[in-house]
Amino acid sequence: MARLGVGLRPRVLLAMVLTGAVTLGVAALALLGPLETRLRHDASSNVITAVLGAIPAFDDAVTPKRRIDPGAVGVIARALARRTGARVAVVDGAGNRVTDTDPEVIDPFDDARLALASGHTVHDYRFGRLRVATTVRIAGHRYALVLRKRLNEVASANRVVRDAFLVAAGVGLATALLLGVGLSSGLVRRVRKLRDSAQQMEELGLEAPAPVDHSRDEVGALARTFAAMQSRLRREEASRRSFVATASHELRTPLASLDGMLELLRDDISSQPVDIDDARKRVVQAQEQSLRLGHLAADLLDLSRLDAAIELRSEPVELAELGRAVVAEFDHRSVREDRPVQFDAPPEPVWATGDPGSIARIVRILLDNALRASPAGERVTIEVGAGEDGRATVAVSDRGPGVPERERELIFERFQRGETAIGQGFGLGLAIGRELATRMGGSLELAPSGPGARFVLHLAADEITSPIATP
Length: 471
Known about the structure:
Layout: H1 8-54, H2 70-84, E1 87-91, E2 97-100, H3 110-118, E3 122-126, E4 129-138, E5 141-150, H4 152-204, H5 218-270, H6 276-307, E6 315-318, H7 319-329, H8 331-336, E7 341-344, E8 351-354, H9 356-373, E9 380-386, E10 392-397, H10 429-439, E11 443-447, E12 454-459
Parallel strand pairs: 7-9
Antiparallel strand pairs: 1-2, 1-5, 3-4, 4-5, 6-8, 9-10, 10-12, 11-12
Helix pairs in contact: 1-2, 1-4, 4-5, 5-6, 6-10, 7-9, 9-10
């Protein structure tokens, strides 16, 4: 056995883990990065809103003489600092601090100058710290309201989400791995059973036990297909063995008879004086056995072609003309045996679809059987027409002993002859006829009749040329 490469189980597991890892990686890129940006943006918006909301309060931070009141400015700044959790300072145009909630920290307040110069609120985010600067008017002069805040809650929330995501990713990958192990183990076990069954069939032949898998998935369907194939091969092998055994037996009988007759003929020729009459009798008998062997060889050749599923032709066939041609082949025999053949057909052509040679072969088989079954002086009838279902038909009737009810299907099997069969046949003709009819999409059946037997060949009517195909 060839050495196996990487097994199915590790490949399934690797595929599941890689799929999960890629999915989680894409989800992380799509979630964690935008999440931090969104959290920072929301925190900045809240702080800026609080700063802008505090601007009107500075209108009252003046003394009675309409000068800036540093104490009142400091109160407003500290209130804003408590509300936002940030450092708040008020700076004049020269960079001097009017108030600062955290004066010990050095800050150039460069954004304050930018806000005073532009007259707009400016903000940025540097090194984890939010900076906001806007202008306020106190006692008729412009000052810069500056705010500094570290967005620690943003980083903290992002870490919490990231840690939770990593835990969920780990759990997901572990779950996928466990599911993959279970799925791949079951799948590999079932595939190995199929492989073992195939190896057993290779070692033991068709008698090896067939695989059993009732699951309704692809592997189960494969196992059932494998079992059905094995069962069909068993039937075909049994049919082949039966065919070979029966054919050998059927060949042995005429060969032995032919050998005995030739030996007697040799004795007749060797004796003195030569027995001419007996020799002639032996020659006739030998010719009969030779013809019998020829018929058997032809039947076996037909069966081999049927078993090989050689495609038959499909073309319009005029049944009345074909039937007359086959009847003409039996004219000499029917006169010699005193069994006249009556041919009945409608005046208009009867067209069917099929293989002309196969149809003629079936009619020959039926007519040969009818001539052998009918007593001398009795008529054999061939009728061409249309059945009640609109199909074209060829019916052959005789006045022989008929077929017992229990043998009506048996006689269509290979090497099976009925109890009332007459003559030295091999039990192949009707089997060949039915298989040919089936291959052409028709049927060959024994119709109820009495006395005698009536065999009817049904074929599809040709839809273009046959008048029976039109209502």
